[in-house]
Design a protein that fits this description.
The chain is built from 9 helices and 5 strands; from the N terminus they run αααααααββαβββα. The chain has about 325 residues and is mainly alpha-helical. The strands form 2 sheets. It has a 3-stranded antiparallel beta sheet. A two-stranded antiparallel ribbon has the order 3-4. A hairpin with an 8-residue loop joins β3 and β4. The longest helix is centred in the first third of the chain and has 70 residues. It starts with a helix and ends with a helix.
Length: about 325
């Protein structure tokens, strides 16, 4: 009996091994299949994660856009804030910016005038005349730009004056734009004489060119270079009609060519700097102008350096030298 039991146990164990064999193999195959499928499941998870991030980023972006919409200010719903004395510094700063631009245009005007003088002095015939006409047209455009800048500058200064005396201005934009518009319309309606005949740069331009083209001759009234237009009948200013003007390059005190010229802001006559200082030596009051026929009085502080006249003196000296050389050449030929 014991032997039989032992043999039976062996058969049962063998049977179990036979049954377990395929099962274990199947289990290993299942594990391998799971290993093969695992990367695919991971990939899917990664895709889901990435997609989830995209949705999150998109949602965040939409939230930002909504926040931006909330932060936007409806400018039309806010009226202009009133100006008071605390704003004068800022307003003066704006006016100063316009003043800086005006000076820049003025420097450009002077350069154009210098180019015209050099052209008239060195280029003759139709080519020279065509170039001078083009420069004159360009100079007039610059004068118009300068005038428009002055209009903006003065509009701001007008607001500053109102605020300084205690006036509260609620409609600053409207006042500024209305002031600029009215003055621009007024300037545009002016005639050619009214726009340019009193402009110092333009007058110096015409004077310098005329002296080169007509040496030794007095320039006629500047209005004669501009055709009369409707509205010029009201021009009764003496400085517009005064003619027969010629530049005198001699000092009324020394009767010699001007040196370091200064010009009186009262009467417009020029003197050598050392000569006029000697005339006022030890005297601080006003004295009668030493120029022949002038009855005006001025002080020494009224005499300012004249850079424009310095340039004219140099050109005048160069022209005299050129004329002497031409005369010498003619004598040699004879």
């Amino acid at each position: 009996m014991p032997a039989a039991s032992s043999s039976r146990r062996k058969r049962v164990a063998l049977s179990s091994d036979i049954e377990d064999g395929p099962t274990q193999k199947s289990t290993r195959e299942d594990v391998e299949e799971e290993d093969d499928e695992q990367p695919r499941r991971v990939v899917k998870k990664e895709k889901k994660v990435v997609k989830g991030k995209g949705r999150a980023a998109e949602a965040y972006h939409n939230e930002e856009e909504e926040d931006d919409d909330d932060d936007k200010i409806d400018v039309d719903s806010f009226a202009d804030q009133p100006l008071d004395k605390s704003h004068t510094i800022s307003m003066n700063g704006f006016a100063s910016d316009w003043g800086t631009m005006i000076k820049t245009v003025q420097r450009t005007n002077n350069m154009v005038a210098d180019v015209a003088v050099a052209l008239a002095d060195n280029v003759e015939g139709d080519v020279g005349q065509k170039g001078l006409l083009e420069l004159e047209r360009f100079l007039k455009e610059l004068v118009d730009i300068e005038s428009e800048m002055h209009i903006n500058y003065e509009a701001i200064q007008n607001l500053v004056q109102q605020v300084t005396i205690g006036t509260e201005i609620d409609n600053i934009v409207e006042q500024y734009q209305d002031n600029v518009r009215k003055n621009k319309e007024s300037y545009t309606s002016k005639t050619t004489r009214q726009k340019y005949a009193k402009n110092e740069t333009y007058k110096n331009f015409k004077q310098s060119v005329y002296e080169i083209e007509h040496p030794g001759e007095a320039m006629p009234p500047i209005t004669e270079f501009m055709p009369k237009e409707y509205g010029d009948d009201s021009d009764d200013d003496d400085d517009l009609e005064m003619g027969a003007v010629t530049q005198d390059y001699k000092c009324p005190l020394t009767l010699r060519p001007l040196e370091n010229p200064v010009t009186s802001e009262i009467c417009g006559h020029s003197f050598s700097q050392d000569a006029i200082r000697e005339m006022f030596a030890g005297f601080r009051g006003s004295k009668k102008c030493p120029a022949s026929g002038c009855t005006r009085e001025f002080r020494l502080v009224d005499c300012k350096p004249n850079k424009e006249l310095v340039k004219k003196l140099r050109l005048h000296a160069r022209r005299l030298k050129k004329k002497e050389q031409e005369q010498d050449a003619e004598e040699v030929i004879e």
